[in-house]
Amino acid sequence: MYAEERQQEILRRTREAGRVDVVTLAEDFGVTMETIRRDLTVLERAGTLRRVHGGAIPIERLGFEPALAARDAVLTAEKERIAKAALAELPDEGSIIIDAGSTTGRLVEVLPSDRELTVIVNSPPLATVLATRANLNVIMLGGRVRGRTLATVDDWAMRPLDRLRVDVAFMGTNGCSVEAGLTTPDPAEAAMKESMMKAALRTVVLVDHTKVGNDYLARFARLSEVSVLITDTGLDAGLAADLAAEGPEVVRV
């Protein structure tokens, strides 16, 4: 079993049982306890579980949301592949929404310089990067800035979306599952994401495999409301098929 496969199974067991311990995992997988500890460290850095004495618990039990800087530092290769794949969904011209987030931030970095686009964002850092691009018309949705995600939320940010109709919304999410759809820990951010999706003709979700099967407090969309879901090859093909059965085209890169 490859390390990534073992880590996915550890994460599944952690969510199912509510806790796992290092000794049992080492015995079950036939590896050393140090190997399991390294696996738990990888999963903790990805923001999917929290290490505790002798084992780990799922992050959902803590109601915890990793800060943007922490999320941006993990799964960088996967996020870059997802962002590059999302370029296929860009209109030749027109308007797009780019949600705040670490994977959507990678999309901002690779946007082509040869298209005239209006780009609407709810992230001051992303607006700052985009504003230097001569071919882009950048609209910043103002409002309260959440310190953990650096996303603008609440009524001042949401109100302009009622008057907008954009071609594509590129969205991030904390959780994604067949049962709950797309979820995030903060209700204000969920309301913002829902408004962004409603303002768009099509929605493209950028989500790495560690977030699939993870549910948080506030749902902002069902999978049937998503046009395309782009993830990485770390996601099991069977689970990808389950997601696709709910409506979206699922792309693994």
TrEMBL record:
Family annotation (Pfam families): DeoRC (PF00455), HTH_DeoR (PF08220)
Presence of keyword DNA-binding: yes
Domain HTH deoR-type: 3-58
GO molecular function, one term: DNA binding
Superkingdom of origin: Bacteria
Presence of keyword Transport: no
Keywords: DNA-binding, Repressor, Transcription, Transcription regulation
SMART domains: DeoRC, HTH_DEOR
Function: Repressor of the lactose catabolism operon. Galactose-6-phosphate is the inducer.
PANTHER family (UniProt xref): GLYCEROL-3-PHOSPHATE REGULON REPRESSOR, HTH-TYPE TRANSCRIPTIONAL REGULATOR SRLR-RELATED
Protein name: Lactose phosphotransferase system repressor
Record organism: Actinoallomurus vinaceus
